[in-house]
Amino acid sequence: MTPFHLAFPVRDLDETRAFYGEVLGCAIGRSSATWVDFDLFGHQMSAHLRPQAADAARDGKVDGVAVPIPHFGAVLLMDEWERLAARLEARSDIDWLERPMVRFQGEPGEQATLFIRDPSGNALEFKGFRSLEQVFAH
Questions:
Q1: Domain 5-134 maps to which CATH number in 1.20.1250.20, 3.40.50.12160, 3.10.180.10, 3.10.20.740?
Q2: DSSP character for 120?
Q3: Residue 3 and residue 43: Cα distance in Å, rounded?
Q4: pLDDT by residue (tens digit) across 54-105?
Q5: Which of 13, 22, 58, 85 is the most exposed place for a label (fewest CB within 10 A)?
Q6: Which of 63, 26, 76 shows the shortest CA–CA distance to 47?
Q7: What's the pTM value of the predicted model, to 2 decimals?
């Protein structure tokens, strides 16, 4: 599988570097005065300075739970997702939208999920699957 690229707005590059680098553990790539690249689980994420960045609205619905739209994140194997969830749960500075939970329990595509906001209000979802074959199961 090849990595995807996503450019997203942030209000402050220093707080963004700290969040993605220290909280999520992303390697930091190239940068300038107006953007910075991160390696988010093998994908190229480019944070672009936009001081007027706004919070995503919680106007989507998945498995009966309101979710923010838009949002982005990563699909992980369960052991990696569990390590990330534990690291985030151990911190007191996480802006939780949805704490770790299992969705579609006992159904095809069963997944663990969690939602957080970065310091600019971008909503992130991290999903965990026992097998990547379950990602598109129906």
A1: 3.10.180.10
A2: T
A3: 5
A4: 666 677 778 787 888 889 999 999 999 999 999 999 999 999 999 999 999 9
A5: 22
A6: 26
A7: 0.89
